Amino acid sequence: MIRVNVNENAVGVATRSAVLTPSRTSQLTNDSHFPSDASYVHTDNNYTTGEKTKLAGIAAGAEVNSIETVKVNGTALTPEDRAVNVAVPVKVSDLTNDSGYQTAAQVSDAVGAEASARAAADAVLADSVDMIFDILHGSIADRTTSWEMLQRIVRQGKAGEYLTVGDRLICQRNGTDLVWNVLGIDCDTPADPQFTHSVTLGLHGCVQGAAGQYDAREALFYFADGLAAGTYHFTVKARPVVSGDVNKTFQFTLTQSIPEQGQLVLDVAENATLAGSTAKTYASATSSTPIETVTITEGSGGASLGDQYGNVGDYISGRTVNSTYRALNGNNNYKQSAIRQYLNSDAAAGSVWTPQNAWDRAPSWAANTAGFLNGMDADFLAAIGEVTKTTACYEPCDGVNSETTNERFFLLSRSEVYGGNQTTGGEGAAYPYYSQYSDLSAPGTGNDTNRIKYIGAYKQYWWLRSPTDRGDFVFHVRNTGNIDTNGAFNGLAVVPICCVV
Description:
Number of helices: 11
Distance between the termini: 144 Å
Helix content: 10-25%
Structural class: alpha+beta
Radius of gyration: 50 Å
Number of strands: 25
Largest sheet: 6 strands, antiparallel
Shape: elongated
Strand content: 15-25%
């Protein structure tokens, strides 16, 4: 007997027995799960699971990505021979010049034209200089072009090419020549930021003479709500010159009431006692006719009007009583001064001055003096512009030690004539006219012929704008050229200053 192993299974057969071997797949167990399909053809490109997953991710109705239309600036192009040609500019001339750019030739022409125009203007300017200064010096009647042309020279920054410090220029006021000296070039800063250059002019002589009161004596009391008739008293805590009045109480009696915004004005000299003096009451700062005149005596009768001080914190806070100094000698605050109004007014006599504070009073010249600009050449005035100036203040009265203002016509400061500083930050350096042509070898306040001013043949005392170290006195230049001080209510000559801008 033979033992045969079939698929590792032993099969026992007789000597002549047969072993059955499968000849068809149907005789086999389909443990590999081959598909049973007579038409199925097996290849290496059969459908895979990955491809099925990919196909499942495609949305229904999806189309192949493709460009269907080509547009240039929103306009569709038509294909030709299955191609589209997009024209791209490669030269500036291919573009529409909607911004107005100029060609190289046009730019060259424009630059050439500008250069020619500038050269022509410079030539005209240079050719006109002699004529301009003949006109300014009064040799030619037509003055209109001269000051306008001078202003152009200044604005171009070329004043130094045609002017020197000390040169004299002429304008007219009411038909009379006014002679101006060049005090400096580009020393002052124009108030208008579009301009950067200036020429400072100072009157060669003076105006006003002894009538030039800087500022009037102010009221002692201002009554915003008025004051009824009756007896009143006040105590003097400080006053100039007469120290015997200090800490004394004085009284007066009103027989008529003072209306709202009325004033009481002392009528006493600086060096006289208040006892036995008089005072006048007025309906307002502009009233020139007194309501009544009252007598001041020692005493404490009636209601108190408070204490009278020389340094007026009261002045700043708006209380009734004014500074003793300003009531007796005038106000030395330049911004509030009567003389500043005179310098910058073209009004007729009687219309120049207006009150600048509650205690203000009209200056002695108010009724009979026109403003300095009245009758001045219009072409000259058109060339004069504002500049920024700093002026010292008496801080105990004014609350600040200096003020910066825009000035068209102004007075010189102490430092602009003599050098040095009157206030922190300064009031301006000495103008070259005074520093370069001084009799002195160094800055100083001594006698100097270049500072002497005349009206006719007579030497004058003339105002500066700087205050001293009390509320009523102002610096001035003596008739010998040295420095001095005086009460603001006094009348001195006036030297106007201005700038071509």
